Fold each of these.
Amino acid sequence: MTDTTMDVRAIERLIPHRYPFLLVDRVTEFVPGESLSAVKNVSAGEPWFSGHFPGNPIMPGVLIVEALAQAGCLLSQLSLPDDPERRPLYVLVGVEDARFRQAVVPGDRLDLGIRVEKTRRGMWWYQGTASVEGEVAATARIISAATGDGA
């Protein structure tokens, strides 16, 4: 693994997401073309907690999957040659086999792990795992595709 960390400012230079929809706070390590580990610190101030669910706040499963997809997008971006003018935008085009095993609540540190299964013609298939304190919270197969000039 490459011991390369990235804070939120560096992440924002690679993907277009912004608060409140940027769901990756830090990249902790990555191997270009292979894998990436990242973190989402789940705060009580997240906008969705006021309605999901009042008195028993739980991070929506679709947002956990979105966090995994954003981590996958970061892995794709970090795996490309360093030419910002030719970098495509990666968009989520599929989710398969999503499974949710435990609730993610305010105060949790959501650890995101992405591993590349295959790439072909601008498309990337990843296996993603989201964990809290070493316990799997969710898994999903994520599929993304490149758009734009660099595709």
Note: The chain has one domain: 8-147.
Amino acid sequence: MSQQKRVLILGGTGDATELAVKTAEISDVAIMTSLAGRTRQPIVPFKETRIGGFGGVSGLVNYLKEQLIDVLIDATHPFAAQISFNAAIAATAVNIPHLMLIRPAWKPVAGDVWLDVDNNATAAAVLPGLAQRVFLTIGRQELSTFAHLNIWFLMRMIDPPLPDTLVPPGELLLDRGPFSLENERSLLQQYEIGAIVSKNSGGHATYAKIIAAREQKIPVVMVQRPPIPTGEKVADVESALFWLRDKVSK
């Protein structure tokens, strides 16, 4: 009887949840998942899911050793750059296979009006003169970057901002994707939105706002992804499962 391989999936995305569920169906694999804990009611694929940070690279290295992890898969959000670098370093330190599951970034198509920017600060800098009513879809962590602007914002996020957060003028909308095209069309029209600020998260769950903006000829200030570490990468769940099956069979 072969020994079980212990697989840790760093999650926080729909792809991570799907991967965890399908990995659990592989024989001779014991799966653990981990979430950063940034949302108050995260989607937890298993009761055994660990929630919270590791305490940097050293904390993650200790966890991998203590839990006897054989394989590490990083399926975190494309903008969770710090944990991705920590995971790459920690996996190398303990000498275990490491994979990054990174969904492809969105790319503009005919009819899109995108202003590509490197970060939220640059996004805030280009908004004056672009629109007076902006749909801000960057989550709650960097709202204060836009608080100084004399612009009205519709701010959509899963959880409300922390009490001491500087919040821009406007309205908070607490909701979790996926969002339908009909919903996004209605929001843009109802709130008379003149521009959108979005992270280039990729995937299908929040892409409808990009289609709606294209239809209504609304510019999108698109925040580009931060750098990611070098290492093995795949773009979809099926490719990650193929890679994993190969690793656990050895």
Note: Residues 103 and 235 are 5 Å apart (CA to CA).
Amino acid sequence: MSDITELERRITAALERIGQGLEGLERSDPDRPDPAELEALREALESERTVNAQLNERVKAISERQETQVTRRERRAAQMVARAEALEGEVDKLKAINAQLRQTSAALRAANAQGLGDAAAIDAAMRVELEALALLRASDRAELEDIVGELAPLAEGGKSDA
């Protein structure tokens, strides 16, 4: 992009020098140049101005496209960070539930080893296990929704932001 800016600067400077030279020729030289040559120079100047304007438009279009892509990438990155944070929370919950499940299972094994059938321990173990399964199911569902969200634009024939 700096190359385009440098070229634009150089073209503008050259056009100004040509314009000043033409004005100087018209004012100071009693033996004016051929009007056809002068007209050709003016046409060349106008042509260069047109090219310069086209280059400016192209630079503007490229800049806008880049800004759009950067915005899209930043939005996608923010979504991914939010999802990663949510997954970290789910992992922490699963770790806590699994620790609780291990403790309850150990208590059940100890009660069974002594020949005692502890209904409260069995009930607690079943509740913890059901909670762990519910969290695991919710985690799986969230992951599937993410996958479907990524595949939906592809199924519609669009581009993914990935």
Note: The helical segments are 2-28, 35-113, 119-155.
Amino acid sequence: MGVPAVVAAARGHDAHAVLWMLAALAVDSIDGTLARAARVRETTPEIDGRRLDDIVDYENFVVVPVLFLLLSGGLAATPLGWSAACAALLASGFGFSHSEAKTADHFFRGFPSYWNVVAIYAWFLELDPTLCALLVWVLAAAVALPFGFLYPSRAPRARGLAVITGLLWGAALVAAAARPDAAWARPLVVASLAYPALYLALSVWLGGFRR
């Protein structure tokens, strides 16, 4: 799904690229659950599912959205824009390879490289490239924070709330990407920011800073 997203962005079909990125996000939200249900550790012990998951996630959540930001103009082809792109790629590379990228109590350590979400909102809201670059720099630094960000599908508490609101959030963005020129699309996207705010609040409440 990452490859057609990049192809669509390269051809100037930004809305199609966003839909592909959202589809990849939907698959990522259930792939672990399906893998555990299928008992892949027992049926294919020679395959390291976590490593495969990290490879796919780095492509779809880091490389693809960074390319999308550059191709769609979210990040300008300036020293600040290029440095922000490199910061996201490098920080997330170290973040994914960290021995405690996912904690024992099912939290992400540091900003969990949701660059696809950043790229989608930057496109929808037509974020100024300078502001977008500064945001990317801040979030790249946040990858190294010893802070527990919520893992929605495995949250120790409020899992139902996180999952249900996440589904509504995803549906709202899909609807807006399918009809980006509709009068209701932008207000819907702005309203959907309530979910990232809820996600951050739950992360502060349930995760927070760790040693």
Note: Residues 2-209 form one domain.
